[in-house]
Amino acid sequence: MNLPSQSVALLQAARDLVKSLPADAVLLLTETSIDWDEVSRMLAGCKLFVAAENPALTKSLRDNPDWTVIDLDPEPLPTQERMNAALLKAVTDEVLQPGAHIVALYNGIASLDDAPEPVDSLSVIHLGEHLERMTSQDLRILGDAAPIDVLRAVVDLATEIGREGREGQPIGTILVVGDTRKVLSLSRFQNFNPFRGYSRAERDVRIRDVREQIKEIAKLDGAILIGRDGIAEAACLHLGTRADGVTMRKGFGSRHMAAAGISKQTAAVAFAVSQSSGSVRVFQRGEEVLHIEPLARPHVWQPFRLETQEPADGETETREGEE
Ligand SMILES: Nc1ncnc2c1ncn2[C@@H]1O[C@H](COP(=O)(O)OP(=O)(O)OP(=O)(O)O)[C@@H](O)[C@H]1O
């Protein structure tokens, strides 16, 4: 099986870019079978990551020491999200440096299953500072509060809410994970609990369709509570927390104070999605432990460099006695 000419040209371009930019690695996303020997020959000398929706496609590659196969969930995802997932997974598994420069090859134009070209697009991706914060180390710290797959799902949900909003409008919310009993005891419902009456499977945030439903619920005022096991338990919650002893940067309002406060008073982790900026801040034990910008996950449709503004030094303060 030979590679079609367009794929050959794109592989050559990827190899040249790795040298001339320079870039750290090539990521090849594929959904169709491909002549791996030919790919291997053309990309000789390049570090290569391969991710496929169908694990059978990459099964034979695991034995090759020059290639790193990234396991993705088998659920069908749009190309952009699959690429995001592959890069995030490579970073969290520590096989890719968070600040790496990547040349990505993929099939970006939806085409028929038997389309002759396995690759039709090339992007240069500069993983930046805020992705850098999403290292295994960070997730391991949070991992004390919930299993890593639950935390990954909640991170995805929170960043998507921050980035997408709803019906063209930005929305903010708080996702509280873990210690459900204590969180409930400190909170009151502002409305009916929208999760009531649904089965566990219908409330499991690890399932993509469930996350889509929760995005709708996030429009409602109040916090969303998710168990350690990933099952959403309640929404429309007003978190009745105290903010004493909570450290908070200047410029944050009651939503972030409530998220920090509940994480201080319980063993839960709280993800505050800012309505005004779309950013996600994760609080544990009253402290901000992670900060993810809405554009932190790589954009694959055009080359771009992640740039974010950090507050100037000294812009933190401690508020005391706030309700
Ligand atoms: N204790 C709480 N429990 C749940 N939600 C809260 C609580 N306090 C505030 N909120 C939510 O935060 C909203 C007000 O956000 P505010 O602008 O004051 O905070 P912020 O931290 O600046 O957040 P944002 O960046 O989203 O604007 C309220 O409308 C409510 O939805």
Automatic annotation (TrEMBL):
Q: Drop me one GO molecular function for this one.
A: ATP binding
InterPro entries recorded for this chain? DAC_DacZ, DacZ_P, DisA, DNA_integrity_DisA_N_sf, DNA_integrity_scan_DisA_N
Reactions catalysed, as given in the entry: 2 ATP = 3',3'-c-di-AMP + 2 diphosphate
According to the record, the residues making up region (Disordered) are 304-323
Instruction: Mention any Pfam family matching this sequence.
Output: DacZ_P
**Entry's Gene3D superfamilies?**
DNA integrity scanning protein, DisA, N-terminal domain
Q: Does the keyword Oxidoreductase apply?
A: no
- Keyword Magnesium in annotation: no
UniProt domain DAC: residue ranges: 135-294
At the top level, the lineage of the source is: Bacteria
Keywords carried by this UniProt record: ATP-binding, Nucleotide-binding, Nucleotidyltransferase, Transferase
| Protein name listed in UniProt | DAC domain-containing protein
Q: What is the lineage of its organism?
A: Bacteria, Pseudomonadati, Planctomycetota, Planctomycetia, Gemmatales
